[in-house]
Amino acid sequence: MTTAESTDTRGRIVRAAAELLERGGREAVSTRAVSAAAGVQAPTLYRLFGDMDGLLDAVAGYGFEQYLRDKREQGETDDPVADLRRGWDHHIEFGLTRPAFYVLMYGNGRPAGASAAGREAAGILRRLIGRVAAAGRLTMSVERAAQFAHATGVGIVLTLIATPEAERDRSVADLARDAVLRTLVTDAAPSSPGEGLPPLAGRAVALRETLRETLRADDDGPLTAAERALLEQWLDRLADGR
């Protein structure tokens, strides 16, 4: 099989599995069902994807591509908090309009970062929160804030998906969003980094994000990689009060 033929077959298998997923959920995506729908033999699936987890990762990436494309095209404004709010709303909307893909990505007990799509989605969230930190408006470390926002958002979406549509109250997602923002973000941008936050935590957050933006891992800066890692660890502990 040529490279072009292999790519075409791979795409056909992923599309077939995605259709099965949307029609019948994860249980419908079996080796036999996918092979029949794509018109291939079972060994072809394993040759191209390694195992079922590999196929499911590809299907999740296929389903999330529109979400990720919209995220990439969303762009940035001069208000990082508004951008974070908009990102939350987009995440909720995708989960409720494409529940099968969302549950595949976040509801199967596997780390979302295990797939390329999951890593990109996590990276987008981290960048959104990083911009809030760079503006001096984050109340904790970027990593803790990203984990908090992610856990809350995913929990809300999975809960709403599991709730019968007739009983579903989508305003719960708005309430959760506002609660998250109240926890993560100061009321107004300070005139200097760290102003308006607890002095130590605020300055640690601002310095941590400045380091991330200005000292790239491959730069020849004044710190060794080990020194930088230790400094970042200290700043995170100061930012989070640990």
UniProtKB/TrEMBL annotation:
Pfam families: TetR_N
PROSITE patterns: HTH_TETR_2 (PS50977)
Keyword list, A-Z: DNA-binding, Transcription, Transcription regulation
Domain HTH tetR-type: 7-67
Transmembrane stretches, start-end: none
Annotated Gene3D superfamilies: Tetracycline Repressor, domain 2
InterPro entries given in the database record: Homeodomain-like_sf (IPR009057), HTH-type_TetR-like_transc_reg (IPR050109), HTH_TetR (IPR001647), Tet_transcr_reg_TetR-rel_C_sf (IPR036271)
DNA-binding region: 30-49
GO molecular function terms listed in the Swiss-Prot or TrEMBL record: DNA-binding transcription factor activity; transcription cis-regulatory region binding
Coiled-coil region(s): none
The protein's name in its UniProt record: DNA-binding transcriptional regulator, AcrR family
Organism this protein belongs to: Jiangella alkaliphila
Lineage: Bacteria, Bacillati, Actinomycetota, Actinomycetes, Jiangellales
